[in-house]
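FAQ: What does the model actually see?

It sees only this:
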Amino acid sequence: MKDFFTGNKIRILLHLLAWSILLGLPLYFFKRWDIGEDFVWFYYIGSLINGIIFYSNYLVLVPQYFFNRKKHRYYISVLVLLASFYFISDTSNKLIIKYIPEHESKEVTLDQPAVTGRQGPPKPESAFGRPPFRQMHFFNYIFSSSFLIFFSLGLRVLERHSQIERMQKELEKEKLNSELAFLKNQISPHFFFNTLNNIYSLISINAGDSQKAVLKLSKLMRYLLYESDHGNTKLSNEIEFMNNYIDLMKLRMSEKINLTVSFPDRYDDISIPPLLFIPFIENAFKHGISYREKSFINISLETDKNEISFRCVNSLVKTGEESDSGHSGIGLENVKKRLGLIFPGSHDLKINKSETEFEVLLRVRFL
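And it is asked to produce this:
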């Protein structure tokens, strides 16, 4: 139904409706006011000629010449069209007048007043007199045909402009989807790179923990391969994914690390983009934990109707990985780009960094 009202079918329906009113409604007035047959013929032949002029310009001349930057051909074609149908209109009027009874007795000219069977007091003549029928027809034709030409041209230009806007929106949407897919594919290898490094370090320390880590990783892979590949996902799935990742990271944590996680138990299971918060959590575990000194990570998420507030704070410790700082910001840069593409003007992202702490505050509004 939506495609019907935005496509060519609704345009055709509107044209048919307009012509039905234009041709059908006058019949009611003709019968009601007992209008003569001559006027009926004038009206419908004039409507037919106007329709041909309108659609010749609307369907043929404007698309072929005006839109293709052949303005001279367009103007010449319009003049030829109007001149041709003026002679057709004038000829048809002569034929109608020729077969109207007592037409000559009803004509009024400037030189001779009309003579009727019943004489009355002479009416005062106008200073200019009554213009001849042919002259009235000429000016009426010029006015109506010019109006139809400009109206059909404007209507066609507006429709083309609307079509171009729709195409641009579709292209922007496709570009957005391709950029989001590219960014998500960048996140996944980066995420697996860090996770596999963690599992590798666990194998030599505790084989049982490493098996649990592989099981956790399989759940994460299932989410990345299947759940997050269908556009948006449910908030509950994203929270489960973050919990699995955090559980995986706990396997290699020492007692010196203070980890607090606060996810809501009850919330509206709204639809959100996948992998929206995990880059911040991943960054916190990568740069916020130390095995030699005390460190901390605080992760919290709150929901309020159509708004999500996420906060992640971690300590900053100096590790040997700082030499790889050129690659550590890939996930954060990607999530910034994704937020700008998906939620333009409806998100607030604040990143506060000091010598000892790194804080991320993200608020997303779902309209």
